Amino acid sequence: MTDLRQYIRDVPDFPESGILFRDIMPLLANHQAMDQAIQAMAMGVPPGGIDHVVAIESRGFLFGVGIAQRLERGLVLLRKPGKLPGNVRRHQYALEYGSDSLEVQADALRRGGRVLLVDDVLATGGTLAAAARLVRECGAEPVASTVLIELEALNGRERLDGISLHSVLRY
Ligand code: AMP
Questions:
Q1: 90 bridge partner residues
Q2: What are 48-74's pLDDT values in tens digits?
Q3: What is the spatial distance between Cα 168 and Cα 42, in angstroms, rounded to a whole number?
Q4: What is the mean pLDDT of the chain?
Q5: Hey, which of 127, 147, 157 would you mutate to test ligand 1's pocket, going by the most ligand atoms within 8 Å of its Cβ?
């Protein structure tokens, strides 16, 4: 087992002053490390299993594909506005400055379906909490979430009310 931390590059003051950015590009560039990361993230599957893996744009997609393949489940993408064709549902959520939105195709999830949410980093938890709300608005149940990196000092975990969180690396 490799220590995956050596594949995460810390970039101070990016994208703005005061932010310590956790850059996953060195991980992506190493197929064995990436394979180990996906295997570890897939351990977030809850007892009772899931029906769908739901990945969040954009770096959540990089892990969502591999996790869905490993768990032998279908993948559904939550996208930024205007990217998905057809009938979509949108959820708008507040950021520190301004707001953002996520969309999903209205027929992508089935009513009562159990969902595992996937993203690369949990920071404040706003993004995962918004994703969970959108999944619920579709009638499905976000039962668990999995991330590669959890920034513990920001307490994002507390915003996930009731949804279990699995994180591979904690900073
Ligand atoms: P949040 O909604 O605050 O939990 O932010 C989560 C989203 O922002 C994730 O999709 C990450 O890709 C990104 N993100 C937030 N903080 C960082 C960070 N320090 N390093 C890398 N990505 C981050």
A1: 103
A2: 999 999 999 999 999 999 999 999 999
A3: 10
A4: 96
A5: 127
What structural domains and CATH numbers belong to the chain?
A: 4-170 (3.40.50.2020)
Query: What are 157's two structure tokens?
Result: 């975990």
Largest CA distance in the chain: 44
pLDDT, tens digit, for every residue of 105-158?
A: 999 999 999 999 999 999 999 999 999 999 999 999 999 999 999 999 999 999
Task: Give residues with Cβ within 8 angstroms of 5, minimum separation 6.
Answer: 169
Which sequence positions are flagged as catalytic? 59, 96
CB–CB of 123/60 below 8 Å? no
